[in-house]
Specification:
The chain is α/β, with parallel strands linked by helices. It has one domain: Alpha-Beta Barrel (TIM Barrel). The chain has nine helices and eight strands. Strands 7-6-5-4-3-2-1-8 form an eight-stranded parallel beta sheet. Strand 3, helix 3 and strand 4 form a beta-alpha-beta unit. The radius of gyration is 18 Å and the shape is globular. The chain starts with a strand and ends with a helix.
Length: 277
């Protein structure tokens, strides 16, 4: 399976070409770029141009881009106005949010990438038919915009009442939107369970987010090495391997002080995932 790493691992630092070079030298051939103002600012043309030059000269590929979740650089803590959610039911508020996501998709005009990873709702959000309709309207617009730039939108299972595996599959069946899915192991573990979630999503899965947690909080832990991990990786990998090359193993991890050399640990995680029986 193709190995890929999300730059979420370094999300609290500005993304530089030096960081990308270190990822490449660690033997990782593909990345998912995580759009967050403090890390990769989709409005910063100087940073976008710098990354464009790097990827034109490097064989490492951008497999996917994670759509921005907030407009500030502190994870939405500056207030509700900073949250980007396609489930916003007030059209006059939702349209500017969709426009922000479009600016992120335009990154493909500088650096080609295949998939945009998109959330429906925020963690813990309750189900509401009006929110589902808002998401449909937003995604209908975004998918056309993305396709014109060679990008496919993938919906990610997230721990809320709108984005469980069951809800996502029902949403796509009902709306007839031709979108794929991104299977997130940690989120599935927190919600309906990995086996149940993957069983529902499998035919439409095009990418993954691989990370661990204690079953109670979305901590994006390193598999095998982090304290508090609780996912059965032997069973999980057996399910993922059964799909062959349908999608990559893409690690979406959180920086932690107990791993001062995270890319070395990432290499070990990949090795263990591939060799686990």
């Amino acid at each position: 399976m193709l190995h890929a790493l999300s730059t979420h691992l370094f999300v609290n630092h500005r993304l530089t070409t030096a960081a990308l070079e270190r990822i490449w030298r660690a033997g990782i051939p593909a990345v998912e770029l995580f759009f967050a103002r403090q890390h990769l600012d989709w409005t910063d043309q100087a940073q976008i141009a710098e990354l464009g030059h790097f990827f034109r000269d490097c064989e490492m590929k951008v497999h996917s881009v994670h759509a921005p979740l907030h407009t500030d650089d502190v994870w939405g803590r500056s207030g509700p106005h900073a949250v980007l959610s396609i489930t916003e039911t007030v059209k006059s508020k939702r349209i500017p949010m969709v426009d922000q996501i479009k600016r992120a998709i335009e990154f493909a005009e500088t650096v080609p990438f295949r998939y945009l990873i998109q959330h429906i709702g925020v963690p813990g959000e309750e189900y509401d038919d009006r929110k589902v309709e808002a998401a449909f309207t937003a995604l209908e617009d975004l998918s056309v915009f993305a396709r014109h730039r060679g990008v496919e939108i993938l919906l990610e299972n997230t721990p809320n009442a709108l984005s469980s595996a069951e809800r996502l599959v029902a949403f796509l069946d009902e709306t007839h939107l031709h979108l794929g899915l991104c299977f997130d192991t940690g989120h599935a573990h927190l919600h309906e369970g990995i086996e149940a979630a993957f069983g529902r999503m499998k035919p439409r899965v095009r990418s993954t987010h691989i990370h661990d947690n204690d079953g109670g909080a979305d901590r994006h832990l390193f598999p095998f090495f982090a304290a508090g991990r609780s996912i059965d990786w032997a069973h999980t990998m057996a399910m993922l391997r059964a799909c062959g090359e349908q999608f990559p193993l893409l690690l979406e991890l959180k920086e932690a002080p107990e791993f001062p050399h995270p890319l070395e640990t990432v290499q070990e995680v990949f090795e263990r995932l591939e060799n686990i029986s």
